[in-house]
Batch of 3 targets.
Target 1
Amino acid sequence: MLNELDVMDWGIVARAIHVLGVVIWIGSVWLVTTVLLPGMKEKSRANWVREFDAIEHRFAPQARIAVLLVLLSGLYMLYYYDLWDRFTQVEYWWMDLMIGVWVLFAALLFLVEPFIFRHIVHSGAGRAPEETLDLMLWLHRVMLALSLLAIFAAIGGSHGLF
């Protein structure tokens, strides 16, 4: 008698984890970009910095976990379905876009945000609070746009649109 684990398609499990990770990650970016940061513009400098810190303190670990789940599940799918050669084929350009967006976000979440951006927010908010908040909003809008493009391209590309 076969064990249920022997017949389970782990590639489907990896894909489900991948999609959940992307939903949590990019959904959070959407919330920060379209709701939280614009709402900060209505607050005083001291209030928005304090509120941003409180939100970021809870949000960053969740975003890091989601980004790591996307990496691990994506690598597993590449291995499981043996998709490595797609990176050499032009018609799979959307896979390179997905990787590029992931690398950009990972660099921001794991390197820039904790070591550089936090300092910029605190020092910049003291000198130029509106300009600092505008910069944060602009960066989030760029990242959201790239993320949405990558999601559209990945879904379209994986279903034959391109």
Target 2
Amino acid sequence: MITISKIPDGKQWAEEIAQAISKGMRTNFYASAEEFLPLVKEGRISKAAFPGGSYYFVEKENQIDVYFFLEKETAPVEVPKLEKLLVLEQVALAKTGTSPALEEWETIGFEKYLQRKRLFLSAKKTEAEQREISFCKEEETETILGMMENAFEPYTSALPDLETLRKDLAEHRVIAAREGGDLLGFLRFGREKKVSVLWQIVVTPEGRGKGVGEGLVRDWIALERAEVAKFQLWVREDNPPAMKLYEKLGFLSDGRIAPVMLRK
């Protein structure tokens, strides 16, 4: 049985992550370690080391995210029982499969939960379109966050907190679809260098069947096309209507998939 201990030093931890990545170990950790330093200070990141690898556990309110570093010939080892649900997400190229194979994780108690695929659209492939774009208002912050929480599954949706959402609203990164004074849907997006990323899109029951989702995506493209090189989003593979919409608008798969597994 492996032992879990808190990460005491953020700088040392960041150096450990950099060394593990430089060794070419199999991993699902692709973020910058510096992004996690506040969580180290809060005592929310723990480590479990074992021959051939290590796990890092990031504690959230309702779950614990699991990141791994494994040498090429090392299989996942049993994780001790923890009080919260464990969430393990990996990103890989579809043509090469996931690394390591999902079956390895099933042997230690993880179950398949969902899988997403990444789509993109080159800005050069879009046409200029004159659209009257409306934005959500700052006084709608809590309403919008509540709509997100009702619309998305709780473990991997990466919903913003109130402070982040308020900032996005103030900077016009949440597009609104309205009918009269009623909010029928919204689309939240952001920038990663020259890529415009769709973070969340929600259509209310009253807005379905009215082309609200397509209108929001067209608004997003019209708003950003002159400033970015491409558009990007993740979509669940078990959501055919969304897949059909994005394909209609010209989005293509870039080969990236993200399978998610849970251990209850």
Target 3
Amino acid sequence: MKTTHWFVLIFSVILISCGKENRWDVELPQEKVDLNITDISKDFFDTNIPLTEIQAKYPFFFDNRVENSIWENQRRDTLEVAVYDSIREIFADSEFENELKSLFAYYQFHFPNEQLPQVYTYSSGLQNMYEPVLYGRREGMLFIALDGFLGKNSEWYKKERVFPYITKTMNPENIAPAVVQAIGREIVPFNPRQQAFIDLMVDEGKKLVLADALLPKTSDELKIGYTKEELDWALANEGDIWNYFVEQNMVFDTDKSLRERFIQPGPFSKFLNEIETDSPGRIGAWIGWQICRKYLDENSEMSLQEFINQDTQLIFKESKYKPRKGGGDYQPTKNESNDEIEKYE
């Protein structure tokens, strides 16, 4: 598979609970959101359209340092064309455009001062499948590489040897949650002075609450990228997971390895004990989500904008988060004091 030349270009353009009423399932205005969605690859792979015409139409999509002969060869590359043909087949009757319009209708409702982006879909020739959604808030652009959502059983992913824990979130129905995550990376404030584990968890929790608000009818497992079994495991072990974090003095720890162990995607979360492989990845993000939901239960009148900008440790403190312990599977590997957590209890 050839490397597509627009990969760098796009990056340069873009420098709850059961039984409770869903507070985010609000009634929207009757008028439909004016969201424009353009398939760039439809023009790019149509060799009847002159390349110069496509370049004039989408100047941000081309690197001027690349000779036109290379672009012309790419338009005719059999593998590139085959990937795009797969996109056209899979998304011929897809509802993803309507899902995006619904998502941005809620976005406009909660953030009326934010501009709606121009949405561009394209085929990256499997080059951007690991980072298929890019959102430029200031630029007003949203790019979606649809070859990142061909379905977990896609033959293309098998050929590329993509790990199953990654392909489980590479289905058409994962587009909207991935878009929300991309929006969250832009609008959830980053504070370099607050990078303790609790800050990382709550930051991720904010992005998942954003998914609650923008995708109010979507299942929790789809929002976070879990299977139903993984979500059930998280729910059943919530108290023991939190107890592990507390007993290991991780909550206020600034050890950078905690992000890789408990926040970033992975086949499982790394508890460094014999049963860690039972857990789903990103369990720290899931705990942060529950902390944020608990905080919102305690602050039911707070708007989404106010919540997104709220201090992370204040959210933790005022959430009064203290889930009930279960069977105690996640016992610490060594006994440590947890005096620091007591000031929040």
